[in-house]
Amino acid sequence: MAGVEAAIDWLARRSRSTQLILVGVVALLLGYQAIRLAGRDPGSELAYVGGALFLLGQLVGFTGLALLAYRLLTE
User: Fold this and answer.
1) C-alpha angle 51-23-54 in degrees, rounded to nearest 5
2) Quick one: pLDDT band at residue 39, thresholds 50, 70, 90?
3) How far is it, in rounded angstroms, from Cα 32 to Cα 36?
4) Got the DSSP string for 9-69?
5) Residue 50 — pLDDT band, cuts 50, 70, 90?
6) In Å, what is the CA distance from 68 to each residue of 19, 23, 53, 72?
7) Confidence at residue 65, expressed as pLDDT on a 0 to 100 scale
8) CA angle, 23 then 63 then 26, to 5°
9) How far are the Cα atoms of 27, 48, 54, 56 from residue 39, in angstroms, in the given order?
10) ∠ CA 44-59-46 to the nearest 5 degrees?
11) Residue 1 pLDDT more than 80?
12) Are 33 and 73 a contacting pair, CB within 8 Å?
């Protein structure tokens, strides 16, 4: 449990844009793996969940990048 607490403390010290980028990348990778695990079955619910995670990861990641760009351009 000490490793998890250290990871949470490390993430808490990061800026909001960095947190968004990291969470977006994790969601994107989880979604990609879920899509791959679902295979070629068009009715697989796992593929739909993976696709939703993938899109959510992209949205959150790009939001983090936009926030980072805004902060850099306004300083």
Assistant:
1) 10
2) confident
3) 6
4) HHHHTS-HHHHHHHHHHHHHHHHHHHHHHHTT-TT-HHHHHHHHHHHHHHHHHHHHHHHHH
5) very high
6) 11, 14, 22, 6
7) 95
8) 20
9) 19, 11, 15, 20
10) 10
11) no
12) no
pLDDT-based confidence at 21, cuts 50/70/90? very high
In the numeric block, which tokens belong to residue 27? 């969601």
Between CA 67 and CA 54 the distance in angstroms is 20
pLDDT attached to residue 8: 80
Here the tokens at position 11 are: 């993430």
